[in-house]
Write a structure and sequence with these properties.
alpha/beta, two-stranded antiparallel sheet, zinc ion binding, metalloendopeptidase activity
Length: 313
Amino acid sequence: MDLRASISLLVLLLGLSMALPVMEDGDENEIVFEEPEEDGDENEILIEESDSVDITTQILATNNASSELLMEGDLVVPRTRNALACWNNNCLWKKSSNGKVEVPYTVNSQFSSAAKRKIQNAMATFNRKTCVQFVARSTQRDYISIENRDGVTVAVIVPPIFLRCFSSLGRTGGKQVVSLQKNGCVYHGIIQHELNHALGFYHEQTRSDRDQYVKINWNYINPRMTHNFKKQRTNNLNTPYDYSSVMHYGRTAFTVQNGRETITPIPNRSVKIGQRQGLSTTDILRINKLYGCCEYDLLHPMVKHRISLRLLK
């Protein structure tokens, strides 16, 4: 790599900055972080989670070097599709007669026991809060394979980052890989972020109505990366824009100038975006709406509040 290319890479990577939200008590969009269940194992979770970088920094830092065809930084475009497309039930996981949506999965043997527990803990939120149930695969044809795909070391960041996090959009049929590079992607929020892609969810800032809520600063985006900010034909499920979504980019994603924002919330530019702590309550509401989880939908605080208001009228 020549000097000019090295400098460009350095600027791109160092431009990704922190964007962790601070949720206030009673916030409708609080982050739902599930602590590991007590089972007598003092070493239940051994992987430390640093808040030093936002979700975009952690995921995008080296995914651009991936051999996979990636869109929006961490979405694999299936060779059978000509674009990211998940507009109908064809890409959704099937609901069984008991009302549950089973998503079979396997976990590669390269993961440590602690990493496997971390993955299962992230899945537990879906299993408890929605009708989507991640279940160990037996003989099911369609399933996700959670793998430790090798990444590349980015030595210009101190400490060096070694990542490879990506997923397909929705159910693609047969085996589909969710990559969680064990040295950089096994974080609670990142696991949930990639699993949510596998359920059919886009990044929040690509919503069809996003221009009402965020300003895209095109002049600070790497020209080769502008396609990652394209608005998608999304089904917003009659839910509000969620700055706190685990699917939202951080404010300096793909910046070409250190510290310059590529995404600015409007009208309040101080709103935090890019958290990787876990699913927000609106993320959970959308999963239940998309998959018709009626009994879970009724338990959601936003829905209960609306029902209470109707009863008072």
